[in-house]
Amino acid sequence: MVLLPTAARAWQNARMEDDLKIAPELRARIGAVAVRSRRSASEIVAEALEEGHSLAWQEYYLDKVTAGLDAADRGDFATPEEVEQVVNKYRPA
């Protein structure tokens, strides 16, 4: 392993944006997630790298959020009994 001086590492990191090759299909998926989440493509990639939220996870998450919002728009909410059932499921005995 070759350790670079700090200045060389900073220069290499700054150039990563120019050197990073992403397949067109993956670039399209990143772009679609960015649009749906109102974030930049850079933020999507950074979240995947820093937080471990893969692109597939982010797509799944957005699908579930969208489904929930669509259900709410239809007035499809949990009944008080359903809410109580969930609360009691996790309440200590």
Largest sheet: none
Estimate percent helicity: over 70%
Average pLDDT for all residues: 85
Beta-strand segment tally: 0
Tally of individual helices: 5
Q: Give the low-confidence spans.
A: none
Characterise this structure.
- Helix content is 74%, strand content 0%.
- By secondary structure, the chain is mostly helical.
- Helix 2 crosses helix 3 (41-51) and helix 2 (24-37) runs parallel beside helix 4 (55-73).
Q: Nutshell version of this structure?
A:
By secondary structure, the chain is mostly helical. It is built from five helices and no strands.
Topology (SSEs and partners):
Elements: H1 6-19, H2 24-37, H3 41-51, H4 55-73, H5 80-90
Task: List the keywords.
mainly alpha, 0% strand, 93 residues, elongated
